[in-house]
């Protein structure tokens, strides 16, 4: 469904992504993990059209999307829940959700989308007319996911849904993500800080470190966590450096 090949992204002299490839099949939940600064948010932003690549290709259902504008990519069925959520805090929950419906043609289809989001997020329905800034962190994360759903995506990229949330709240966010996957057949690519959580929820895992993809595998083959940790921390390379120094 989504295919990224040989992606390179630069910020001035810094190469944030180097030769990065990844694929997500329809119906899969794929988690991307990696240390801070690895380039995960850059990869998500680049797929969603917010950052330009210097090399490589991104295709959705076989059609090239790299170089297209974010709203064109959203129209193709890909929606991003950005890192930090980007909620408009002075607007109400309803207004934030309606902003996500920029592609809908008429009032009826916007209302239908709103009803659908409310069904998945009863807490947002209760706080419908409250300002988004008055919501708790978990509720704001749910609002960000709800807003992304308003475009009617087939695949959703969720950038660090756990950020700053207590484990119990993260559990609730994942419960909702998993119910969206099951009930709406939504394909998910999630940037997840916790490798344990990634291994629990994903079909497949990617580990990105220092702008390069270090590991790809099926979650069921990686359950002991060892290969993931090696790729995450670069243990093998450290040992090589240590041996060379002796
Ligand atoms: N707009 C920008 N301009 C310049 N450098 C940037 C910009 N955005 C990110 N970077 C740099 O690119 C690299 C990758 O950052 P990115 O935010 O993609 O990593 P990340 O894996 O998402 O990290 P984190 O988990 O901390 O968000 C880092 O070195 C970061 O400092």
Automatic annotation (TrEMBL):
InterPro entries: AAA+_ATPase, ABC_transporter-like_ATP-bd, ABC_transporter-like_CS, BCAA_Transport_ATP-bd_LivF, P-loop_NTPase. CDD domains: ABC_TM1139_LivF_branched (cd03224). It holds the Pfam family ABC_tran. GO terms for biological process: L-amino acid transport. Keywords: Amino-acid transport, ATP-binding, Nucleotide-binding, Transport. The keyword ATP-binding applies. The keyword Transport applies. It comes from the Bacteria. Residues 2-235 form the ABC transporter domain. GO terms for molecular function: ATP binding; ATP hydrolysis activity; branched-chain amino acid transmembrane transporter activity. Belongs to the ABC transporter superfamily. This is Amino acid/amide ABC transporter ATP-binding protein 2 (HAAT family). It comes from Roseiarcus fermentans.
